[in-house]
Every structure is written in C-alpha cells, then in structure tokens.
Specification:
275 residues, alpha/beta, 4-stranded mixed beta sheet, 11 strands, globular
C-alpha cells in the first residue's frame, strides 16, 4: 500500500516575529500586519481545495489578532503551539522557556477550547531543555528538527557533542518529530530583509521554488511507499498575489501526483497506524 502525505503548515507570526527581534519601526510592523490581509486568501484557497492545514500561532498573535484565530477555527484547521513571543527557546534559559510554553498553552486553550498536541519552535532552534519541557506538558509531536525529510521519528534527548570524541545521540523519547527543512520554508525563499549576518536576499522566482518543492514530493513518491512531507508557509510571505498563484500550482501538482493532504495531527495518527 502506498500513502504519500503532504502537510501544509502555516506559521501565523504576524508582528510577533518582528517585535521579538526588536524590529518595531512602522514599516517592519506593517510587514507583519500583512499576515492578516493574506490569511483570508489562504483560508479561501484551502476551503476551495478541501485541504485541512495546521497553523502554528504564537500566543502574542492569538491575543493581538483574535479575529484571525476565530477564522482559522471556523475553517476547521489545527492550531499548534509556536511560543508566546517569537523568541528562540535556546536564548531564554530553562525558566524563561518554561514560562513561554505555559503562557502559550494557556492562551491557546482559552482561544480554542483545547490543548494543542503539537509544537513548533520559533526559528526552529530548540534548547537543551525543550524536549523534557514538551514531554512534561504532554505534547505528542514537535516540528522543529531536521533529522529526516519524509519520515517521522522519536525525538532524542540532548547529548554532549564533544569536538574530539565521537558523538553519541541521546536516548529516544515518546515525543515524535515531524521534521521540517529550511528549503521547504517560504521565508528564506521569498522574504527580503536586512539581518544581523548581512542580507536575506529572498525574492526567488516562484517557478524555481516550485521545481524544488515539487521535486521533493516526486522523490518521495518514487522512493517511499509511505511518506510524510511538510511544507512551511507564513501568511505575510505566501499571501502576495503571485505567490498565491504559486501555492495554487503547487497544490494542483501535488494532487495530480497522488498527494493526500492532512493536518499534522492526522498525519501523526496515520504514521502510528503504519507502525
């Protein structure tokens, strides 16, 4: 039996990403605000295509843009934890990270009526404390690591990584990783922005990105009878007109080649059934 699953995921950061990075000029904040303009376009497309998706939303966005969260819920999509601010867990210390997790959980539970089962780290950078904190809070899956491309796997506890001795991975846990990749993220492909390290050039031609993103699915289809591939979008990035056309073409191509679209939560359940 073959089963080629695609998860369309959206990090609905809005202004939280810019505020967390101390980029609070009117222009920078307006870039985040565009996420609320783009969201209805995305929700309309997903509804037209009958595609369930997963939205990872910081608590800051939940409280700052409550109408957006209500719209996501009305359309029946999964909402996952994405921190409260958009600060990187590895920079917060254990207490700070624990506070972020707890506040985000409380915010999401009040807004959605249920605890999220999945977590995605802001900027995809977990700390040495993240795994135990996620387990303590009962998360079923994480979506921040990059140890596979088309299969899920148990998250391991952090282990020392000495320079002059072999690396020995930590013990596996019950937390399941739903892996991601920067190459399948729209932000580095499309977004133009000065950063501390220089310049994030972005502004790629959608046709070039489509070739890469479709190619990863085509490889999975040819080589993995059962695979799960995750794409990551940001409404304020993908929601521009020509990029919405790109998203439509991507969906059409994936569907024509046998993709099954599921939320992360549903994909995890399917993966468990395969084991």
């Amino acid at each position: 039996m073959t089963d080629h699953i695609v998860c369309l995921t959206f990090d609905h950061d809005n202004t939280s990403l810019f505020i967390a990075n101390d980029r609070t000029s009117p222009v920078m904040l307006s870039r985040g605000d565009f996420g609320s303009v783009a969201l209805p376009r995305i929700l309309t497309l997903l509804e037209r295509e009958s595609i369930p998706a997963t939205f990872f939303v910081p608590g800051h966005t939940v409280e700052s843009y409550p109408a957006d969260i209500e719209a996501i819920l009305r359309h029946g999509h999964e909402i996952g934890h994405h921190g409260w601010t958009h600060r990187v867990p590895a920079t917060l210390g254990r207490d700070g990270e624990a506070e972020e997790l707890a506040r985000g959980l409380d915010t999401l539970q009040r807004a959605t009526g249920r605890r999220p089962t999945g977590y995605r780290s802001p900027a995809w950078d977990l700390s040495d404390h993240s795994v135990d904190l996620l387990l303590d809070h009962g998360f079923a899956y994480d979506s921040s690591l990059m140890g596979h491309d088309v299969d899920l796997y148990p998250v391991r506890r952090p282990a020392p990584a000495p320079l002059h001795a072999p690396y020995v991975p930590g013990e596996p846990t019950s937390l399941i990783e739903m892996p991601v990749s920067w190459v399948l993220d729209d932000f580095p492909q499309f977004e133009f922005m000065p950063i501390k390290a220089g310049l994030l050039r972005g502004l790629a031609a959608p046709s070039d990105v489509l070739e890469i993103w479709q190619g990863d699915f085509d490889w999975m289809r040819a080589n993995c009878p059962r695979g799960i591939l995750t794409y990551t979008f940001h409404p304020f990035v993908i929601g521009r007109g020509h990029r919405m056309l790109f998203l439509e073409r991507l969906i059409a191509g994936l569907r024509a080649n046998g993709a099954t679209f599921l939320t992360m939560e549903a994909a995890l359940a399917r993966w468990r059934a395969w084991q």
